[in-house]
């Protein structure tokens, strides 16, 4: 077994375990799960940001995105193709949407812009700001490209139950600057990694 094959197997196991924890957390969620996210975003009013349209058992950032949309542009990711960075199209609360890849809704008409803040969905996270995604590498490529242009704040948003330890990581995995859950905010912007 090659090192890459072994890492992929570790990631598959970690994802399976995290999906199970997320499913339970989602089933037991309470109203107001985006409260901490709204508080964090309030400190960045008017800064262009991108959230996401939740699918399956993902925690929903929609309430916080709607609040932020009153102050500046808010977008959602639009997949351009396999192994390509995401692009972000302006989203408006109650705006018309169409079906996008993987079951996520996207704006009916694309109006692309580069966000300076990304609210990032994830499968698992750790207390060092690492994230395990779905495996397509979309957010890693996107964050790398955006951060090459200018500072870009990456905020992971998840249920606290999605926290894991010893996540299998690769050198291309982009770290998060913050992780927000329904229980707490982990801020890595002021610490050395």
From TrEMBL:
Belongs to the 5-formyltetrahydrofolate cyclo-ligase family. This is 5-formyltetrahydrofolate cyclo-ligase. It comes from the Bacteria. Its EC number is 6.3.3.2. It comes from Tritonibacter litoralis. It is an enzyme of class 6 (ligase). It catalyses: (6S)-5-formyl-5,6,7,8-tetrahydrofolate + ATP = (6R)-5,10-methenyltetrahydrofolate + ADP + phosphate. InterPro entries: FTHF_cligase, FTHF_cligase-like_sf, NagB/RpiA_transferase-like. SUPFAM superfamilies: NagB/RpiA/CoA transferase-like. GO terms for biological process: folic acid-containing compound biosynthetic process; tetrahydrofolate interconversion. The keyword Magnesium applies.
């Amino acid at each position: 077994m090659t090192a890459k094959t072994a890492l992929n197997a570790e990631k598959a196991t970690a994802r399976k375990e995290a999906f199970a924890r997320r499913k339970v957390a989602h089933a037991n969620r309470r109203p107001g799960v985006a409260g901490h996210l709204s508080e964090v975003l309030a400190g960045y009013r008017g800064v262009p940001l991108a959230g996401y349209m939740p699918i399956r058992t993902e925690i929903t950032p929609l309430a916080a995105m709607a609040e932020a949309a009153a102050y500046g542009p808010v977008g959602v990711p639009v997949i351009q193709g396999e192994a390509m960075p995401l692009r972000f199209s302006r989203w408006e609360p109650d705006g018309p949407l169409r079906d996008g890849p993987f079951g996520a809704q996207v704006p009916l008409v694309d109006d692309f812009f580069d966000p300076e803040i990304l609210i990032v969905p994830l499968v698992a996270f750790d207390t060092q700001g690492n994230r395990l995604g779905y495996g397509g590498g979309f957010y890693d490529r996107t964050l790398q490209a955006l951060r090459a242009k200018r500072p870009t704040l990456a905020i992971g948003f998840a249920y606290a139950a999605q926290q894991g330890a010893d996540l299998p990581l690769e050198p291309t995995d982009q770290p998060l600057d913050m992780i927000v859950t329904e229980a707490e905010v982990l801020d890595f912007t002021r610490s050395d990694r």
